[in-house]
Amino acid sequence: MGLLSFLIFFPALIGVLLLVWPNERQHQVRTIATAASAVQFIASLWLWFGFIPGSGFQFTESIDWITRYGIGYRVGVDGISLLLVLLTTLLTIIAVVSSFSAIQTGRKGYYASLLFLETGVIGAFVATDVFLFYVFWEAMLIPMYFLIGIWGGDRRIYATVKFVLYTMFGSLLMLVAILWTYQYSGGTSGGTFNLFDWYGLSIPATAQPWLFAAFALAFAIKVPMFPFHTWLPDAHVEAPAAGSVMLAGVLLKLGTYGFLRFAVPLFPLGFEYFADTLWVLAVVGIVYGAVMTLIQDDIKSLVAYSSVSHLGFVILGMMALNLVGASGSLLQQVNHGISTGALFLLVGMIYERRHTRKIADYGGIFAVMPVFSIAFLIVALSSIGLPGTNGFVGEFLILLGAFRTRPIPATISALAIILAAGYMLWLVRRVFFGPIVHTVNETIRDLSRRELVTLLPLVILIFWIGIYPKPFLDRIGPDLQLWLSRARPQEMIQVAPKEEPAPAAVRKIPQHSPDTTLVPRRDAVPDHDDVATAGGVG
Amino acid sequence: MLPLLWTIPLWPLLGFLLNGFFGRRWGKKTSGLIGCATILVSFLMSVGALASLLSLPERRYLVAPFDWIVVGNFHVPFGFMLDPLSAVMILVVSGVGFLIHVYSVGYMSHDPDQPRYFSFLNLFVFFMLVLVLADNFLVMYIGWEGVGLCSYLLIGFWFRRPSAARAGMKAFIVNRIGDLGFSLAIFLIFWNFGTLSFIEVFERAPAVAAVSGGLITAIGLLLFMGATGKSAQIPLYVWLPDAMEGPTPVSALIHAATMVTAGVYMVARCSTLFALAPVTLAVVAIIGAATALFAASMALVQNDIKKVLAYSTISQLGYMFLALGVGAFAAGIFHLMTHAFFKALLFLGAGSVIHALSDEQDLRKMGGLKTAMPITYWTFLIAALAIAGVPPLAGFVSKDEILWQSFSSPIGHWLLWLVGTITAALTAFYMFRLVFLAFHGQSRYPSTVHPHESPGSMAKPLIALGVLSVIGGWIGWPKVLGGGSWFEHFLAPVFEGAEARLPAREATHSLGLEYGLIAVSIAVGLLGIGWAYQWYVKSPERPEHLRTRFAGLYNLLLNKYWVDEIYDAIIVRPLVGSARFLYRRFDLAVVDGTANGIAKLAQTLAATGVRTSTGRFRLGAVTFAFGCVVALGWVVYTFLRVSG
Amino acid sequence: MTLLPVPLGNYILLSGILFSLGVIGVLTARNAIIILMSVELMLNAANLLLVVFARVHGDIGGQVMVFFVLTVAAAEAAVGLAILVAVFRRKGSVDVDRLNMLKG
Fold first, then answer.
1. The complex's ipTM?
2. Domain C8-91, CATH number (from 3.40.109.10, 1.10.287.3510, 3.10.350.10, 3.40.50.720)
3. Which end of chain C is more exposed for a tag (fewer CB within 10 A), N or C?
4. What is the pTM (predicted TM-score) of this model?
5. Shortest CB distance from A388 goes to which of B146, B190, B194?
6. Domain regions of chain C by residue span
7. Residues B230-264, buried b or exposed e (16+ Cβ, 10 A)?
């Protein structure tokens, strides 16, 4: 069994074990879940170290499953999914540890759900068979449904049903598109669900918009893009803290990942057809999400709306269709998982103490919880993209890339950075600064050692990616190059080199320009947006 | 020495980390010591760096410890550059920074959160040093936003006060508006120059400008937009007066001497770009002059000692931009330096007064402090004379240079000079109004308060800055008065790219004109002082009289032209209002309403359909059987019809 | 055709009668056990036809199918009776007219 299969099935196995664990030994459940997720995380580190940038899919496994319909158990990891898999294993262990005191009832089911969720998410990230992807994509709904529906807040049933129905609605249309493409892939003989074969298909230009729309709808709901976002605040507000961490941290990434892996490279002409729409939706989502946060009185729904804004940036970077924007987009997916995950974690910690998420119930708690407050401030600053934190690197690259392709939407989106500072710092001011107005808040205890330990890796990552993002960018670069060559419709690639050359002074590239190390060893199409040939000045 | 250039900012960072993690455990004394010592090391290293730089013929040294962001052709090293301009800046930042740290030991000695204070202050110095040492736009941007962060943290240092928390937030957000311009400029620069390195951008700028002048203009204006935010110029100056909520040494270091001058530094750094686009220089000069006059007018009537100084800072920053705008980059930087000395001194002196009067900031409740606080008084007086432009103090030299340049420069204008001169008179007036109200006359503070001279740790920095305020200007003593303009020559390599682009300086101005203008600038300074003396010492009833006579004007100035209120009414309120409207009427009603409406529709349909399932078994069975019969009948019927 | 001792039509008729008896039983009986038995009767009517036509066409498949049906019928009886026992415990009766638990 390969490493990826281990990563997929080990959590599920432990999950089953937890379910049948004797009730009278419930107290061991936490330990088992922690150990399992730790093993899982350590195993996933092997991906990080063993990954060779620019070698396409690695750690691949391929076993025939339902041969008659060309369905295989095919998995592999490339630069696009590598970081997301690692993010999943990291956030799972954090989610498990952070639930120690918050979850008092039904521990067996709870931790089993978290582990099943990990199985579903990792499976979806590494599947290179579209059928297999769909199976995991749907399977992960089940544990999330229970996490929100059983361990959630007062309106948990409404929220969880809404979440599942929204997602299901999108995925059904995607299923139709998958089946259509499957039929098409067959021609006269039997079809296949192998993603690599699908990449090679030349799907007729008339069909592409419909197929893209069906895929994109499923992913857009998951992201969520405006106007499909209203399930998100509800789900986040009602979910338990760890559920929110997983939801924001990794589940939403499946939407953006789906765009990168499936919708865009499979149907580039469809992508081009809907490009204007997506630009508009991304920009509207960015600004709209940011504006919505201004008037939220619930911390969690504020963070949820800020997610809408941040994920709009991720889409924007993808729309840029150049290496800078795409790198930023992928990095920002990871960043959002870290920062927003940490924010939900922090909100969960304070909720555990005061059992309220209303901003008005706090105020001045910097005085009683300095460590918590500083942690929150760091995460908030990373969320608003302060240089030196991860958020800046991602957002900057996205805007830089988008500015190249379409300056006006990029500029409008940049306005949201001002708004982001506004809503985050306003939140910080109302929760942490000022005098303590509620006497209950005078005796809140600061973070425990366990809580600090759960936060620490995220804070370290915030600064690591902010200060030295090179290891991350190096790993994702080559595969994004390849992605770009697939995502750009053919005619664009052919036109590109004909663009007028830049003036001599501009053509001089800095000597340390490292494209030689970044271009994949395969004959990938080089980034036509590179500055040297970029169409002239002004 | 120079290969270790990149470690200069690291010392304050170390101080920040030590104080941040262990400050509470190690106690106040240690935290103060760490805070001061790390800055001192940076200062000494800066001096060493300057010495090494002077021995380099090309007057420029680059070092990049590691690559920061590398994506394809987008390659940004974490690079530092030492040249005369950044050398001046690191000396000012670490030098004045060190004095203010020492002062803070005394000033903050009663505050239980002293370790937090020093860690933030150290962090600020770190970011400021990164800002001025950066060798490319993006690393500069780190420092740029980083100092904004520290400003936010330090303005809101006394976070229990809602006004302090609000002021910090306002500062950060207003700065972000400017930063938007800065980042857009960075985008434009990268996609058109293919690099963000200062040296490469400035080398390629003429070629790019030859193709598209409008592009350079756009870049220049966007960069200047960033500068107006950080350096508190019209229209983004509104955060600086509120920033006075922070501890006074913070106001001295961040909101007078260093951070707010970052915009000036940035424009000077990009002088080549600005020189290529004359429009941008004109905008810089006009905004600078307008801000100088506008802010000075508001300083005339403020009653809070720190607010007077805050508006004075805005006004003086306007002066610096005026200098930059007329192409006198060295003069602008020179004023930046001298201003750092005397304005830091003014703030620290004000802090000393506030400290002595148990946190009283209202000028109307001071008076007669001259005898009780001699050191504070005399140093404050020196600084006031310096800012009023009295020779031979530092302020005279730099200010006179700016006025002369705004008149004589080929891209200058006599109107700019006039505005500058009027501002100079106003500056002398409000500054001596402050001196007379605070230190002269009868004491107006309650008799329970016993003002006392500040302790040594606070007094010594005052004296040091006092000395600098006197002699600091001599290194730029103008040629016509027998000096050598050494400062300008030192900076010349940095600005030669820009100078080459500007129209050649005419040599036709007579010496007589120059002497005349010097005389005018001295005269207006003295006039302002005399005016203040007349009103606030000789006949103190005059201001009261005028206040009632010109009540409208007085209120306009006192309320700062209601600009805050206007911004609130046209930006903040509509934004929050529309957010509320959108949330209720669109997000909940339309978007969520549609989704819920669909769900409702399905529910209604189901509720109709569900009535047919009565749960009665026999009814179900009969229906089923009936259905079977119908289906079967249909099959038989078609069969019969087909088969004949 | 010659393989059958009795004409084919008789078999079909018999099967039809049995099936109709089953249907009438299901529709008219109030006792759930009788309904269950009537269902068995219908199944067996079908089985009869399967066997007959297997013989007619000489295809063993029909008889194989009968085994499947028998198995399913046995399983169905087991599950059905188990349900009836459960229902009886709960309601004290297996009168289908008094059961309306499926009401929507």
1. 0.89
2. 1.10.287.3510
3. N
4. 0.86
5. B146
6. 8-91
7. bbbbbebbbbbbbbbbbbbbbbbbbbbbbbbbbbb
